[in-house]
Write a structure and sequence with these properties.
Blueprint lengths: L37 E2 L6 H8 L5 E8 L7 H11 L5 E8 L14 E7 L6 H6 L1 H16 L2 E5 L3 E3 L11 E5 L32 E9 H20 L7 H12 L4 E3 L20 E3 L4 H4 L3
Parallel strand pairs: 1-9, 2-3, 2-5, 3-4, 7-9
Antiparallel strand pairs: 5-8, 6-10, 7-8
The chain binds uridine-5'-diphosphate (UDP) and manganese (II) ion.
Length: 297
């Protein structure tokens, strides 16, 4: 067992003597206190993972919202997803947009499909982002329960740079936010006002999870979106909006329903940050954007 497999020398072994090198990561947390794996490079073997999941003939759905000026991100998202996102698996992309004419045509691989779902635009960007919970829930109940086994809901203003494969599959999957993985819980930007349904007291919380990725089995993502949407509605009735909109509600949900798998920040990085040594590969990362220009309000 080593954290430096490259440094294992090759030594001539006698008859009937074998050597296996097992890589371990000692520099990062690879399992949570409730025994969910945290996926980092060096903790999994893709060929073993694929031998488990390929025979199941799975369909993986991906929801992506591109409303207003965000249609400009679809092309890069899809082109890079075709290179790195669950390659070799049956993938259905569901693009939610108010401008179906602006969805570019991107060549898709075998067993990869795209549906465009036309939705209306909300005025405020907070509302656009937050309403994803409701729209995903409705679409799950209308069709996705019949169409997919797993669902991954992703931000569109992102690009894939490296393998993002079947190691992400699990019952309920969260991504550790790249901005807070080294911080203590007291500084996590949870909603701190008890009047909000998303309230988390200072002495609670495991991780701060990113709102740009939600995943899991379709039934589990359905339960998550249902609970978060209901909490958002209650907050609206009480005239309160959580600090980071649906991300705050998501964090409350994951506090009460522990994810069965966590994706390390390799899987959801932020390009404004320099790459630290524990990140071997940036797999999926934000596109730098001019907030004032792209958000329109
Ligand atoms: N979004 C959109 N149009 C908007 C604002 C947001 O389509 O005008 C969607 C889009 O999928 C985006 C996501 O909501 O990736 C989250 O918003 P944003 O990326 O601006 O939030 P950030 O990641 O910067 O916190
Ligand atoms: Mn984003």
């Amino acid at each position: 067992f080593t954290d430096k497999p490259d440094e294992v020398p090759s030594v001539a072994l006698g008859m009937q003597r074998n050597l296996s090198v097992i890589t371990v990561r000692l520099d990062v947390m690879t399992v949570t206190p409730w025994l969910a794996p945290v996926i980092w490079d060096g903790t999994f073997d893709s060929s073993i993972i694929d031998s488990l999941y390929q025979p199941q003939n799975l369909t993986i759905g991906t929801t992506v919202f591109a409303i207003g000026k965000y249609t400009r991100f679809i092309k890069g998202f899809l082109e890079t997803a075709e290179k790195h996102f669950l390659v070799g698996y049956k993938v259905n992309y569901y693009i939610f947009t108010d401008k179906p004419d602006e969805v570019p045509s991107v060549a898709l691989g075998m067993q990869r499909n795209l549906s465009v779902i036309t939705v209306s635009k909300f005025f405020r960007w907070q509302e656009i982002s937050m309403r994803r919970m409701e729209r995903i829930l409705n679409t799950i109940e209308e069709r996705l329960l019949k169409e997919v086994d797993y669902l991954y809901c992703l931000d569109v203003d992102m690009l894939f740079h490296n393998h993002w494969g079947a190691e992400v599959l699990s019952t309920l999957v969260a991504a550790v936010h790249p901005g807070y993985y080294k911080n203590p819980r007291e500084v996590f930007p949870y909603e701190r006002r008890p009047a909000s349904q998303a309230y988390v007291p200072l002495d609670q919380g495991d991780f701060y999870y990113a709102g740009a990725m939600i995943g899991g089995l379709i039934e589990n993502v359905r339960a998550l979106t249902r609970t978060c949407h209901q909490a958002i509605l209650i907050d609206k009735q009480n005239d309160i909006e959580a600090a980071w909109q649906e991300e705050s509600h998501l964090n409350k949900y994951f506090l009460q329903h522990k994810p069965t798998k966590l994706l390390s920040p390799e899987y959801l990085w932020d390009d404004t940050k320099p790459k630290p040594p524990e990140i071997h590969f940036i797999r999926f990362s934000t596109v730098l954007k001019n907030y004032a220009e792209v958000r329109e309000n």
